[in-house]
User: What shape does this take?
Amino acid sequence: MIDTLLDLAPAWALAHAAPLLVVVPMLAAPFLVFVPSGRIAWLIAIVATLASFVFALILLGDVQSTPGGVVSYALGGWEPPFGIEFRVDALNILILLIVTGIGFLAAVFSRPTVMAEIRHEKHPFFYSAYLVCFTGLCGVAITGDAFNLFVFLEISSISTYVLVALGASRDRRALPAAFQYLVMGTIGATFYVIGVGFLYAATGTLNMADLAEQMPDLADSRTVQAGFAFIIVGLGLKAAMYPLHQWLPNAYTYAPSFVTVFLSATATKVALYALVRYLFTVFQPDFSFEALAFGYLLMPLGVAAMVVCSFQAVFQTDVNRTLAYSSVAQVGYMLLGISMGTVAGLSAGLFHLFNHALMKGGLFMAVAAVVLTYQGATLKDFAGLGKSAPWTMTAFAICGFSLIGVPLTAGFQSKVQLIAASYDAGLWWAAALIVFSSVLAVIYMGRILEAVFFKAPDNPRKIRGEAPLLLLGPLWVLALANLWIGVDGSVPYGLSQNAAMAVLGGGAP
Amino acid sequence: MLEVILDKGGYWLIIALMMTGLYIVFAATNFIKRMVGLSVFQTSVFLFYITLSKVAGGTAPILYGKDYPKTYGDDDQSGPADGVAPVLDPGQGPGEQGPASGDPSAGDVEPAALETTNDAVPIAGADVYPAYSGVEEVYSNPLPHVLILTAIVVGVATLSVGLAIIVRIREAYGTIEADEVREMDIIVATAEEMEDADGDGLPGPRTDGGQTEAGAPA
Assistant: This one.
């Protein structure tokens, strides 16, 4: 399929796929402000995100057919150590596929929920902010320049604050949530800038590949170590690493449903990618993991997230909030995989990252369908939906099973890989805790599914019907993807394995 | 000891500002004050970058004096004597010029890093852009200034979005004190729990009056 795409694509698209992936949504965003109708804005957003997705597929073909597995694009013709470089390898092509793919599906799905939750005259602005956010996330994933990464990170974050705050028309608590997110997010980004400043002071370069070359000589430098600490804390805040996740549950709960769908599947993933990029590429693993014994910090945090946040998820009555806490717990799984510092661990972590984007995207889409009539998503609103909206809720259940890790779903595949990796690394207790945390997932998902399928509707006069077709389509795409990966996970697992080998120095096979 | 402290006076100032800003962010309950703290915190980082870029005795990075007549395309590398490194000249470092706060690039932060800075940057540059290899005057490093210009723009955008959200909070809650907002949220949350408890099953909107005009769904 990718080969035919490469054959069909015109030469300019092949040569400039990397910048176009970012530039198309970026240029579409300000244009949307002048569009009078929400429907046209929606269509433009779909086209722009679809274009990015196609460029991501082209880049995938490029990366796989390039001998070194690295596609580098010098912006404006300035050679890499000086100019800004877009650099795509096996690791970030995986992230780009997730962001653009989910971004496209979410854009298609957005129309009914945006109609219901956002004032009509605001729709073009809303889609404009969405495209800016999308641009920022793609930019973070594609750039090879440390400072450019900060700029893209803030482009996406600032538009995210706006998008979260727009949830105020449904529930005013979105406003303090957005403000808290803004404060935490800005502190995180500023920490990141301080860290980059230290690295620049020590090396005189901002290009990641160039930084990586100079790092081995500077492993003892206090400047570099301080920079490392600042960067990890800053990116950890953005990625909702366990003790730094306080902004996430509120932001996800009160944001407009569509925003939650998009953010849960992409935003923390992209920050996590940046973390992996720094841990494994810029600072070599023997610096991050041996010299600073960083695995011993990251691993307990990951495990703590898995257990503590799963417990917190059990006690929530709002389904959005349950899933938000579950997201933090899932970030814990990924951190655990990353913290092993082995090819098996990292590829399992990335595989789980990929699957989590699919399952959480699907779950939040189903929740959005419920919010469409009830303005809320408490357990009570879900009662009895299994009878009145079987298609929506079956998809919800599939994604839920995947989150738990039931066999024949995507979640099972990646959890098995994680358990195998931690067993190989001699961490049998981590493997046991993965199973334990999955049991907690059975409880919190079980509560919701019980309400859906075995309880009578709370208010028989107001029964929720099936979700509109525009919601059902993307939802079922994600649910079927979960099943397909559950049966045959070789494609995404192969991608994550390539990514892990690329960053751990084995080279893409 | 005192010398060591004074030597890095600029950095101490920056650290003090940074901590002040962070403290305000966490201690203030007023949303506007929090934004002020955030701005102070960000500004300290801007200053940090600016101090990094100052080269002792350096001037604005515009070719002048002996450098001026040189044509840009000139590939002749024999002009300046060997060892006169351009842009970041080790000879102009703290050793000769005496310590000054906010000294050349990395020098103050970490002596071990100094050599790498001075070797790596200009030599790598000379390979690709030979026109700049034989500069004789001392210039400050322009790059951090450019970076910080970008960061300032980002900071302004964050500040304005933050203030806009505060305006909306004032409209929705009638206050900009964080603890009062939290109290009102707890009251709403408790009311929701009660509604669940009596099981009358009327879902209803989850907000009270203030928001309905904005929230009328289609």
